[in-house]
Amino acid sequence: PVANATITPGPLSHQVHAGDPVTLHCSVQVGSAPVTFTWLHNDWEVAQGPVLELRDIDVGHSGTYQCMATNQLGQDEHRVFQALSPELALEVMSQSPWVTAATGVSGSLLFLVLLVAVIVGWHQWHHLCGVPPDPLDPPEAGEVLYTHIMVTKQAG
């Protein structure tokens, strides 16, 4: 009979990132051929065979995985033996910490670029919009320092 079903790679808990591929192998220490393997995800059958390949995983792949090894002994094949592996807990992180850090850095960099653009724009606008010259500076020949327009009402 089959015995000591194991999943590799161990340990019994795994953290992976969304989009990563995960390959799990099931094997038995003892068992006469033919041995069949069934994969369980959260106690639901999801695949057959000694290898479970999960490509482009997402958060929905989180949970527990087990493999069940089965064989039959005798000519009548009425004696079925099963060995269940220990559970492997798989936690799928929604995003890589490097992507999160890069997003934070790029957001900060964008903020700094916008801040510098606003400061430069304000400075140029302030300079070009004709802030009156400092009255303590002596006027140059022909320069008009101030223009004053007064509107008056005429009576009647």
UniProtKB/TrEMBL annotation:
PANTHER family, alphabetized: B-CELL RECEPTOR CD22 (PTHR46958)
Pfam families: Ig_3 (PF13927)
Gene Ontology BP terms: B cell activation; negative regulation of B cell receptor signaling pathway; regulation of B cell proliferation
InterPro entries registered for this protein in UniProt: Ig-like_dom (IPR007110), Ig-like_dom_sf (IPR036179), Ig-like_fold (IPR013783), Ig_sub (IPR003599), Ig_sub2 (IPR003598)
Taxonomic placement: Eukaryota, Metazoa, Chordata, Craniata, Vertebrata
Gene Ontology terms for molecular function: CD4 receptor binding; protein phosphatase binding; sialic acid binding
GO cellular component: early endosome; external side of plasma membrane; extracellular exosome; recycling endosome
Residue stretches spanning the membrane: 98-122
Limits of the Ig-like domain: 1-85
Biological source species: Leiothrix lutea (Red-billed leiothrix)
Protein name: CADM4 protein
Domain of life: Eukaryota
Keywords: Membrane, Transmembrane, Transmembrane helix
